[in-house]
From TrEMBL:
Protein name: dTDP-glucose 4,6-dehydratase
Lineage: Bacteria, Bacillati, Bacillota, Clostridia, Lachnospirales
Gene from which the chain derives: rfbB
Gene Ontology molecular-function annotations: dTDP-glucose 4,6-dehydratase activity
Domain of life, source organism: Bacteria
Assigned EC number: 4.2.1.46
Species per Swiss-Prot/TrEMBL record: Mediterraneibacter faecis
Keywords: Lyase, NAD
Record has Lyase as a keyword: yes
Catalytic activity: dTDP-alpha-D-glucose = dTDP-4-dehydro-6-deoxy-alpha-D-glucose + H2O
């Protein structure tokens, strides 16, 4: 039985990855290490609380003593490293936290894995692998000229968030080169789907629209992002760990480029269509909710990933087109309004305090 250490597993992508892995495999153990900052919500994984193959540990990845202890106690085979501060606006206001978690925390994990896995002859125990989950934002911004980000694209981060992620990527690359460390890096495009914290664009649109609140749109709203359904991302990560060449970077993109304003208008229309005609919320779900606001500092114009390498070497490609994925996402949030209310009210934090006696 393989034992996976998943960092940040109570967050959006991490919790979806754990759901995917337990659905696919019956013979794995998952140790979920999460500090439970504002974006971590154990309620995302409530169904696994009594699963003997699931362990939750509330801890900071920057705590070297605690992280080393986990490797010793659980004989970790695979690390999937999601844990990161990830909201660009927050990074602009408080860069130091992003450097601490994303750079120092990654270093702690790399050292702990190396200490646990490296043998006297400098080789590593068979089957041990470390996967570092990163972002397309490390590449900077693209022009609207049909070009794409490739694994060979030079890094050019434009926010404290993307700079901290670029730094963590470089550390992983350095460990691969210096210590022949068994690792891979994946850089993904914008994820969407269930369990996403409502400060991010798509759940923010849904929540604000349902409550008749203004939907802020940065600048002219014409910034372009490539959207990837989160379950497709989880599958890609698993396939890289199983089939990817050690030491390689793989870009995971959705081939779903959309302008921000297009995303807003699409969701408003779909929400209006999905709600019953008798639902009073339909009255205020229209484009009058859109409010253009001052553009974000250092706002990248366009992201677009070419997943050619992962398709060729690993056999992965996105399975969910945006029209299908966004309908599934909207329906999930409508069925889980209590989850959304617990997040926006802060009640979810009381849940994990009671559950884990914090």
């Amino acid at each position: 039985m393989k034992t996976y250490l998943v960092t940040g597993g109570a967050g959006f992508i991490g919790s979806n990855y754990i759901h995917y892995m337990f659905k696919k495999y019956k013979d794995i153990k998952i140790v979920n290490l999460d500090k439970l900052t504002y974006a971590g919500n154990p309620e995302n994984l409530k169904e696994f609380e009594n699963n003997e193959n699931y362990v939750f540990i509330k801890e900071d990845i920057c705590n070297a003593e605690a992280v080393n202890k986990i490797f010793q106690e659980y004989d970790i085979d695979r690390v999937v490293h999601f844990a990161a501060e990830s909201h660009v606006d927050r990074s602009i206001k408080n860069p130091e936290i992003f450097v601490q978690t994303n750079v120092i925390g990654t270093t702690v994990l790399l050292n702990a894995a190396r200490n646990a896995w490296e043998q006297e002859d400098g080789t590593y125990k068979e089957g041990k692998k470390f996967l570092h989950v990163s972002t397309d934002e490390v590449y900077g911004s693209l022009e609207e000229d049909g070009t794409f980000f490739y694994e060979t694209t030079p890094y050019s981060p434009h926010s404290p968030y993307s700079a901290s992620k670029a730094s963590s990527d470089m550390l992983v690359k350095a460990y691969i080169d210096t210590y022949k460390f068994p690792a891979n890096i994946t850089n993904c495009s914008n994820n969407y789907g269930p369990y996403q914290f409502p400060e991010k664009l798509i759940p923010l649109i849904i929540n604000n629209a349902l409550n008749g609140k203004k939907i802020p749109v940065y600048g002219d709203g014409l910034n372009i992002r490539d959207w990837l359904y989160v379950e497709d991302h989880a599958k890609g990560i698993d396939m890289v760990q199983e089939k990817g060449r050690l030491g390689e970077t793989y870009n995971i993109g959705g081939h779903n480029e959309r302008r921000n304003i297009e995303i807003v208008k699409t969701i408003l229309k779909l929400l209006y269509d999905v709600l019953p005609e008798t639902d009073p919320r339909r009255e205020h779900i229209n484009e009058n909710l859109i409010e253009y606001v001052e553009d974000r500092k250092g706002h990248d114009r366009r992201y677009a990933i070419a997943p050619d390498k992962i398709r060729k070497e690993v056999g992965w490609e996105p399975e969910t087109d945006f029209e299908t994925g966004i309908r599934k996402t909207i329906k999930w949030y409508l069925k889980n309004l209590d989850w959304m209310e617990n997040i926006t009210s802060g009640e979810y934090q009381n849940y994990y305090k009671e559950m884990y006696h914090l």
